[in-house]
Amino acid sequence: MIKFTYKTKVYYKDVDQMGVVYYARYYEYFEAARTELLQSIDIDVTAVEDDGYFMPVVTSHCDYKIGATFEDILLVETFINELPKATMRIDYEIYKNKNSDLLVSGYTTHAFTDKSGKPVKPPKRLLEVLQNNF
Description:
The protein is α+β, with helices and mostly antiparallel strands. It contains three helices and five strands. It has a five-stranded antiparallel sheet with strand order 1-3-4-5-2, covered by helices on one side.
């Protein structure tokens, strides 16, 4: 398993009229955490794309338990639990702080494609790095 914790703050722009984080913002937190997770294991998404590989999201899911509010500090726990084959799943759990209840959990599933959108095998470099970090 590969795990990374991304820390972020809830800004006023993130909340709805009720003062609770707007539901779609959690997907933005997922995306930021995913990018930081990959960087933490020396995978540069731009370099992967420059090599002709893309990782579009093909499935996303989010379970909302407790709403975060303005100025909360969020910890986004991000996990890769298995080596990718045709797709790669990344799981997320968001907490208000280390000792708080789980606010949100979810996942995204990513395909591997070339520039034309045709499915391809995962990039060799990505597989090597993931294998070395498991």
